[in-house]
Specification:
Layout lengths: L1 H8 L1 H18 L5 H9 L3 H65 L28 H18 L3 H21 L4 H26 L6 H13 L3 H19 L11 H27 L3 H32 L3 H16 L9 H31 L26 H16 L9 H21 L4 H4 L16 H23 L5 H4 L9 H5 L3 H30 L11 H4 L14 H20 L4 H21 L1 H9 L6 H20 L5 H19 L5 H4 L3 H16 L14 H13 L4
Keywords: Exocytosis, Protein transport, Transport
Pfam family, one: VPS51_Exo84_N
Family: Belongs to the EXO84 family.
């Protein structure tokens, strides 16, 4: 019942059990075909084999952990039952001896044995035996009269081995006399009583001597062995354990923790005392009593109790203060020292690690959370004064001289340094199964820092809902360079610095290969599925900042400060009222978009050196944001399709030219995407449909594609200030691709 209650209260254990059960369900099926399963796995490639091996190792660890938890959940009941059985066996043995004695007495009375009272001296004999005149006694009876005095002499002189031999001799002679009827039953009973009385006296002497702190190891083992030979094994084993307890308690008197002492030193000294005592007790128990289950169970119960007491002492004098102050390194080191000593006992069959973890894990988790909270608060405080200018690592820091000198702003440098220090401290957390919790906590802190970066974007204060920041002040990133620096911070941390630091949490079998592995940190990190998923989550958090950045710049392009739109239907509808003399050129808003993208591309070339892919995806996202906004602006299309004035031929041509211009510069800048293509197609399709609704043929009003291509290329040259080539065209390997894609779509009527 106790084990059932423990399992019901342990949600993580239950979840682990469910995962293990799900993993084994395939093998439990009645339709499971072993040959087919092996054949299916043999056809996989090397990468799949590695993944399968990793999965099987994880399953093995989860299964072992589940079995260990199950054993410890039921162990107290098992120990209690074993002890009760042992006690019952002892009582049955006592009853058997008593019945045997009573049977002997009854047998003597039945045969008419009479005691000659004339031969009994006045008063009770001191030794409980009958005294006979020498001329009436046999040699055996003389021995019986002298035997108790001989035992008393041996006990007084503490000649234990000789006393044990005398006990054995007496019991043999009594057994023979009983079989041969050479002694009376009363004399036999007196001898048996004398032996039992002196055995008890010797047992008390041995127990008292064994529990003296001054008793050496050899003397202790001799005393326990003698006590066991006296026939009281359970008491002998209990005395052995109590003797080891008294010894290390005596040694602990010189160990006094103080508020100024180093917690690790205190933990190491105390751990050495306690686990050395447990180890010696285990060795003595095995050497004297062997592997008998009753004694092994008592040893495990005793060792668990001592470990519990040790855990409470370490918590009180070392861990609690460290955890309260956020001292993760001190708390983790104390726990690691204790677990290190404890692991040495596993070779003796004593797995006491779960007992330590039960007490240490919550304290170390508290220190972990306090440490993460400090990183979050310090980074937010630095962001309040950050000028959002990228610089190299601070001079004098231990990361300034490394090969990975990446430019970040001051708050990001502070965040990175604190994270590096954090991962220096969390190595011992692996042995406490806190690696995943450390990664999850750091993800939460990084997400909080990204919220700070989003908050630094102009206009985000009113739009975003930031939990946990209250009225915290963040320095605004006013310029495009400062805003790109925000993205440089987040992308570099998420893509390289944090995953590289998290490699210190890799399992030991992977960590041993780090020094020989010269691949990029991100490639090495991809070995670990958990860290690969963690990195993916970090990058998805960066997308939150990227979306906020693109949304802000798109709105700046589309709307004025007064809220009016630069991208309205009137700019296309009214063009037909200005006559045929039109200077064909992309609309002003798309000119500004092209200029903004060029400026950002130039800034990003320096800020995202080595990470050009991120810069390209950022420009791609910004272009998509503008086009998708236009495609989904219902008021714009209501005016185009149902407004008082229809879309004319010139307006259609201008809208077509604007979309062609977007495709051309996006293709030239290598940030043309499927979403952008789809968005421009939707816009042109809607415009053609609106024009067709007037009864006119849109294709008869649109010039050839070469006309649009020439204007787009000329517009990019004029806006970028670049000179034309010899043939009057801008040489771009992708410009022709854009022209061909637009021409093909138009010829097939997709526009």
């Amino acid at each position: 019942m106790a084990a059932k209650t423990a399992r019901s209260k342990s949600t993580p254990t239950k979840e682990n059990g469910v995962r293990v059960e799900e993993g084994l369900s395939l093998f439990k099926s009645d339709k499971f075909d072993a040959d087919a399963y092996v054949q299916s796995k043999c056809s996989i490639n090397e990468k799949d084999i590695k993944q399968l091996c990793s999965y099987l190792l994880d399953l093995k660890k989860a299964s072992a952990e589940e079995m260990r938890r199950s054993v410890y959940a039921n162990y107290p009941a098992f120990i209690r039952t074993s002890k009760e059985i042992s006690d019952l066996e002892g009582e049955l043995s006592s009853i058997r001896n008593l019945l045997s004695t009573q049977a002997t007495l009854i047998h003597g009375l039945a045969n008419g044995v009479n005691i000659d009272h004339d031969k009994v001296s006045d008063g009770s004999p001191a030794n409980g035996l009958l005294n006979f005149e020498d001329n009436d006694l046999s040699d055996l009876e003389k021995w019986a009269a002298e035997y108790p005095d001989q035992l008393d002499a041996l006990l007084a002189e503490r000649r234990v081995d000789e006393a044990l031999a005398a006990f054995d001799e007496g019991e043999i002679l009594i057994s023979q006399a009983n079989e041969n009827h050479t002694l009376s039953s009363s004399l036999l009973s007196s001898l048996q009583f004398a032996i039992a009385e002196r055995k008890q006296k010797l047992a008390d002497q041995l127990a008292k001597a064994a529990c003296q702190p001054s008793t050496r190891g050899g003397e202790l083992r001799s005393a326990i062995t003698a006590l066991k030979r006296l026939g009281d094994g359970p008491r002998a084993h209990t005395v052995l354990l109590d003797a080891h307890f008294q010894r290390y308690q005596y040694n602990m008197q010189s160990l006094r923790p103080s508020s100024t002492s180093y917690g690790g030193a205190y933990t190491a000294a105390l751990s050495q005392l306690v686990f050395s005592a447990i180890s010696q007790a285990s060795s003595d128990s095995l050497g004297i009593f062997g592997k008998e289950p009753a004694y092994s169970s008592e040893l495990v119960t005793w060792a668990t109790k001592q470990t519990e007491a040790f855990s409470l002492l370490v918590k009180r004098h070392a861990l609690a203060s460290s955890a309260a102050a956020g001292g993760l390194r001190a708390a983790a080191e104390c726990a690691q020292i204790a677990l290190g000593h404890c692991s040495l006992l596993e070779a003796r069959g004593l797995s006491l690690g779960p007992v330590l973890l039960k007490h240490f894990k919550p304290i170390v988790e508290q220190a972990l959370e306090a440490n993460l909270k400090r990183i979050e608060e310090n980074t937010a405080a630095m962001a309040a004064a950050d000028n959002w200018v990228l610089t190299n690592p601070p001079a004098g820091s231990r990361h300034a001289s490394t090969a990975f000198q990446n430019k970040l702003t001051s708050s990001a440098h502070r965040f990175n340094l604190m994270v590096q220090d954090f991962f220096e401290d969390v190595g011992p957390l692996l042995s406490m199964q806190l690696g995943s919790k450390a990664l999850e906590g750091l993800f939460r802190v990084f997400n909080s820092y990204v919220d700070v970066l989003v908050r630094a974007l102009p206009g985000s204060m009113e739009e975003e809902n930031f939990e946990g920041f209250g009225n915290m002040i963040v320095q605004m990133a006013e310029t495009e360079a400062q805003q790109l620096a925000l993205l440089a911070n987040a992308s570099l941390l998420a893509d390289e610095l944090l995953p590289r630091a998290a490699m210190k949490l890799a399992p030991l079998d992977q960590a041993s290969h780090r020094t020989d592995d010269l691949r990029r940190p991100s490639d090495r990190q991809n070995r670990n599925p958990e860290q690969r998923e963690w990195k993916r989550r970090l990058l998805s958090t960066v997308d939150k900042l990227k979306d906020a950045f693109c949304r802000q710049h798109a709105l700046d392009l589309i709307f004025t400060e007064e809220g009016d739109s630069h991208l309205s239907a009137d700019m296309y509808i009214n063009i037909d009222g200005n006559g045929d003399d039109v200077d064909w050129f992309p609309s002003l808003i798309f000119q500004e978009l092209y200029a903004k993208l060029n400026r950002m591309a130039s800034l990003a070339a320096d800020m995202f050196e080595g990470r050009e892919r991120f810069a390209t995806s950022l420009l791609m996202r910004l272009t998509e944001t503008v086009i998708l906004w236009l495609s989904g602006d219902q008021s714009f299309w209501d005016d185009i399709e149902e407004g008082p004035r229809p879309l004319g031929p010139l307006g259609l041509r201008q809208l077509y030219l604007d979309m062609k211009f977007v495709l051309c510069f996006a293709s030239q800048g290598r940030y043309l995407s499927r979403n952008l293509n789809r968005g421009t197609n939707e816009i042109i399709t809607k415009a053609l449909a609106a024009f067709s609704a007037t009864g006119l043929d849109p294709y008869s009003e649109l010039p050839e594609d070469d006309w649009f291509n020439e204007i787009c290329l000329d517009g990019m040259e004029r806006l970028s200030g670049k000179a034309k080539g010899n043939n009057g065209e801008v040489h771009s390997p992708t410009a022709s691709v854009s022209a061909q894609s637009v021409s093909s779509a138009r010829s097939h009527g997709s526009y």
